[in-house]
Amino acid sequence: MQDHEDTTKMQNKHLHRKSKKETKTTTAESSTDQEGYLIQFAWDKQANFLNAQSRAMGELRVLIKQFVSIADEQDERRKKLELMQVHIDDIKSDIRRKDNAPEKPDISSSYVDALKGKASDVKK
């Protein structure tokens, strides 16, 4: 979230109260509208966006599963989906392998510093 001070003021018109009055001779309905403002802060906007994106991704996942169950085994689009899944699995395994690999110490800067120290000893 880049701008946490971002706010949006939207006009919110909703039905406040609806009543029905009945007398012996007439029936009257009355309602009162109330206008107000709904203030939406940046974190509310981001939460709404993330929820909408999550719902869309879930729907896409369901639609892909339905397509795979319906599609013929030899369908080219099904083969492309399988290829994409293999690529995703490869990327995930690369990430896991990099996360589990021990970090190599950065010796280049200390090596250069040591050489500079030796060079200054030689100049004297």
Describe the 3D structure.
This protein is of the alpha+beta class. Among the domains are: 1-10 and 36-70; 73-101. The chain is built from 3 helices and 2 strands, in the order E-E-H-H-H. Strands 1-2 form a two-stranded antiparallel ribbon. Residues 1-32, 96-124 are annotated as: Disordered. Residues 96-106, 115-124 have a biased composition (Basic and acidic residues). Residues 11-21 have a biased composition (Basic residues).
Biggest sheet features: 2 strands, antiparallel
Question: Structural class from helices and strands?
Answer: alpha+beta
Taken in chain order, the helices and strands follow as EEHHH
Shape: flat
What's the overall average pLDDT, rounded?
77
Number of helices: 3
The helix content, as a percent range, equals: 55-70%
Can you summarize this structure?
Residues 96-106, 115-124 have a biased composition (Basic and acidic residues). Residues 1-32, 96-124 are annotated as: Disordered. With 124 residues, the protein is an alpha+beta fold.
Can you give keywords for this protein?
about 120 residues, alpha+beta, 3 helices, about 55% helix, about 25% strand, flat
Topology readout:
Layout: E1 7-22, E2 27-41, H1 42-70, H2 76-100, H3 108-123
Antiparallel strand pairs: 1-2
